[in-house]
Design a protein that fits this description.
This protein is of the alpha/beta class. Helices cover 56% and strands 10% of the residues.
Length: 440
């Protein structure tokens, strides 16, 4: 996501490298490169032009402090304008109803049903008791998909495969929610391959009958300006409350994310990456602007880790680390937790400075398979006591995992180095706490 745009914006700022001050000439050159980068990223020319005109006006009127280079000042101006273009402030969803009704709309294939599953998981993690409602009566296996997702995230699903009327199903679901103390109802509606009158009338009738607190329009970010155009059609009919951008981990230029707020004047509320149920983030314009400009998003990284990691397991792990008892079983658990957080490359891109370094590196979610195969090929005793791994044991492990003894040796060496680092960190903490590192 945004890799090409980030790279081209970085190149635009390079035009100011070595410059002692901002001038009309170097501002014009930089702004031209920024506009070109945005248009290449599938942002409409009008939005790109308006955006860069505002940057130009601010840059011409700005004083460069002696401690700030022209490049740094321009980056700050672009960041501020980008935050505004993306929506300014974070907009939470409205959960004021009892129950709160959230209507999910969008075209078929946009990731609507998967998002519905992610949303109820997110709401459950925030202390809500959600009910997921299957109102797609047209797509084969849609109801079954909802049931599988509900089971996966531990949320109840309301479905009626005998009824073919989405409106009747939704009304029954609201009654069921009120009778069984569900405080949020998420209604997954039917999509079509393209916008048609039947679809728009059906979703319009659902809106009128249910009077939802929130209507979220789900759009596939990979469709670029088509996504923006579809959003406009839906908004004209539904007057929805917010946008959800899915598939941001795919080969997307990012133009939809940047343009959509300016076109429909509705906030982006969530962004979704991949199929994993944990890979859903509340949309923060300031954090997204920071990521686009290659400055990472460490806050979202930490929040996703906190949402994913089991607190009791973390406490046990911390205790074992303090006693230097961290073993391969613990390591395996940590890998599983990291994989739950979402797309690996996307996560690494949240760490400041790492995004640029790995932009040309192919990292996928199978990156840990070799490591996991090696650890699974060890006996329980070997995982708990890696020091007993001799040559013959390593040969057996390599054969069982389909790897080489070199790869096994490399993993064991890295594991030993990690344990030493943990020990040193614990020792330094002890010293800071007032413990002397030597005997008197």
């Amino acid at each position: 996501m945004f890799e090409n745009l980030s790279s081209k914006l970085d190149k635009a700022f390079q035009t100011l490298k070595g410059q002692s001050k901002l001038t009309e000439l170097n501002i014009a050159e930089t702004v031209k490169e920024i506009r070109r980068a945005l248009v290449d990223a599938d942002v409409s020319y009008k939005i790109a032009k308006d955006f860069t005109n505002r940057i130009k006006d601010k840059a011409l009127g700005g004083d460069v402090l002696t401690s700030v280079s022209p490049g740094q000042l321009m980056t700050k101006i672009v960041n501020d304008e980008l935050v505004e273009l993306l929506g300014g402030e974070t907009q939470p969803i409205d959960l004021s109803g009892n129950p709160s009704v959230i209507l999910i709309a969008g075209l078929q294939g946009s990731g609507k049903t998967t998002f519905s599953g992610k949303l109820v998981k997110h709401l459950k993690s925030k202390g809500r008791n959600p009910l997921l409602v299957a109102c797609d009566v047209y797509r084969p296996a849609a109801i079954n998909q909802i049931k599988v997702l509900g089971e996966q995230v531990g949320v109840s699903v309301f479905a009626n495969e005998d009824l073919k009327d989405p409106l009747a199903i939704a009304k029954d679901a609201i009654k069921h929610a009120k009778a069984n103390n569900y405080n949020v109802v998420v209604v997954d509606t039917a999509g079509r391959l393209s916008v048609d009158e039947v679809m728009m009338n059906e979703i319009g009738n659902l809106k009128s009958a249910l009077n939802p607190q929130e209507i979220l329009f789900v759009v596939d970010a990979m469709t670029g300006q088509d996504a923006v155009n579809t959003a406009k059609v839906f908004n004209d009919k539904l007057d929805f409350d917010g946008v959800v951008l899915t598939k941001l981990d795919g080969d997307t230029k990012g133009g939809a994310a940047i343009s959509i707020k300016a076109i429909v004047n509705k906030p982006i509320k969530f962004v979704s990456t991949g199929e994993k149920m944990e890979a859903l983030d509340v949309f923060h314009p300031d954090r997204m602007a920071s990521r686009i400009l290659g400055m990472g998003d460490i806050v979202s990284f930490v929040e996703r880790a906190q949402d994913t990691f089991d607190k009791d397991e973390a406490a046990k792990l911390q205790k074992k680390m303090r006693k230097n008892q961290f073993d391969f079983d613990d390591f395996l658990k940590q890998l599983a937790q990291i994989k739950k957080m979402g797309n690996i490359k996307d996560l690494m891109g949240m760490i400041p400075g790492v995004g640029k370094a790995i932009k040309d590196v192919d990292i996928d979610d199978d990156s840990f398979k070799g490591i996991e195969a090696i650890i699974h090929s060890m006996t329980s005793e070997e995982r708990q006591s890696p020091q007993i791994l001799d040559g013959s044991r390593k040969q057996r492990i390599a054969k069982g995992s389909g790897t080489s003894t070199t790869e096994v040796n490399k993993l064991v060496k890295q594991f030993d180095e990690m344990k030493k680092m943990m020990k040193q960190m614990n020792s330094s903490k002890g010293t800071r706490a007032g413990k002397m590192p030597f005997k008197r």
